[in-house]
Structures are given as C-alpha cells and as structure tokens.
Amino acid sequence: MRAFIFGIILASAAMAVSPCDSAMGWRESLCAFAKKNLVHFAWGYEHGIRDYQLALKLAQEEGVTVDEEVLFAAGLLHDIGGFAPYEKAGVDHALRSTQVVDPVLEASGFPMVKSNAVKRAILTHSYYDPARPETPEAIALHDADTLDFLGAISIARLLAIAGRERGLSDPKTVIKLLTQFQKDLPGKLYGGVATKELGRRRSEELGSFLRLLDEETFSLGLPLHG
C-alpha cells in the first residue's frame, strides 16, 4: 500500500507539468515508449521527465547552452539499460543504456546525428560514476539525476521501493541510504553556483526529515515491517 500511494504521488507530480502532454513527432514517440516500457516507482518514466526538466532548468540558471533535444532524449532514456529486456547481468545500467538506445531513438524519428551526444550524456549520469561528465548536456543530466536523490523527492522515491529492490529490504535500510545521500551527494554536483545552492537546500530538507524522524522515534529507528 505504501508503494502504491507514493507511486500515485510521483506520477501525479510529474504528469501535472509533463512536457510529454504536448509532445509531437519523435518526442511523442519517445514519451509513449518510456511510459509503456520504463515503469518503476523510483526510476521509471516520471523520473526521466523530472531529470529532463531539472537538467534544462539548471542549464538555464547557470547560463550554459545545451542541446535541448539531446537533453530530452537522454532524460527519458538514461535508465533504459536497467529494464528488461535491455538489461544485462554484470553491465552497469548506464553503460548498457548507451548500448541499446540507438534502435529506440531511430524508431522514433530522432535526428540520429545527435545520438552520440545522447549516449555521452547517458554514460556518466549516475552519482556513483567516478568519471566526470564532459559535455554540457552530460553535466546537466548528471546533476539533475543526482539531485533527484536529495530532498523530499528522494524520500518519496526510496520509501516507495522499500522491500522491492535488492539492497533496500526495509525502511531502516532506506533511512541509512538517505543519511548517506544527505552527506555525500552535494559534493558530487559538477554545475555552478545555482546547482550547488539547490543541492545545499535539498540536502538541508533531507537532513531536517532525518532529524525529525530520529526525534519522533526516540532514536529507536523505524520498524522492520508495517
């Protein structure tokens, strides 16, 4: 039930301002593909939309010129390599995404002259990737994806999948991961002043939640079930 409720919250928040609502041409095709095939409470279709929107916003606030078409495609499809039938055991989902994304782009009518730029953005999007993103689109996508693991949205995303994903067996495990994110992720942002300020604010939001949770549970933590 918890996951169902959080799923509704995440989907509703994304759909309210979704660029897919008015998409046409290849954008409409990619939106339809993502909505049908990339279904997940935490890193599915809605997450991709948020990443695109935030990446574009960050670039604009930083005064950085980016290819919006590249950001749109990379935002929606950056996690495709983590979904069946595209995933591959032993291959990180970001790398796998770059290996399988071309046929999806081509089928949509996307301008394939830009496909390499899409793959460069996808390859380094993960917060745990030690490689530094090199292009403006890659930096914006990386930072947007990292920021989606901070703030209120990170709480909703991860609690929604507690008990559903390997390594997140229960709420206590999620709280431990959120605590780590709150501490580490602001330092993994590559953008400028506006990006880092947003990271600071979201880290503070997450920290406030964690402090209140500790206070309201008398430092005993969350129950394993329920």
What brief labels describe this structure?
globular; mainly alpha; Hypothetical protein af1432; 10 helices; 226 residues; disordered N terminus
The chain-level structural class is mainly alpha
Counted up, domains total 1
Instruction: Please tell me what the overall shape is.
Output: globular
From the 3D structure, determine the CATH topology: Hypothetical protein af1432
Strand content: under 5%
Distance between the termini: 10 Å
Determine the fraction of residues in helical runs and give it as a percent range: 55-70%
Brief synopsis:
With 226 residues, the chain is mostly helical. The protein has one domain (2-216): Orthogonal Bundle (Hypothetical protein af1432), CATH 1.10.3210. The chain contains ten helices and no strands.
Describe what you observe in this structure:
Mean pLDDT is 90; it is low at 1-6 and 8-15. The chain has helices at residues 2-16, 26-37, 45-62, 68-77, 93-108, 115-123, 136-147, 151-160, 171-184, 193-216. Helices cover 62% and strands 0% of the residues. It is mostly helical and 226 residues long. The chain is globular, with a radius of gyration of 17 Å.
Architecture blueprint of SSEs:
Layout: H1 2-16, H2 26-37, H3 45-62, H4 68-77, H5 93-108, H6 115-123, H7 136-147, H8 151-160, H9 171-184, H10 193-216
Helix pairs in contact: 1-3, 1-8, 2-4, 2-5, 3-4, 3-7, 4-6, 4-7, 5-6, 6-7, 8-9, 8-10, 9-10
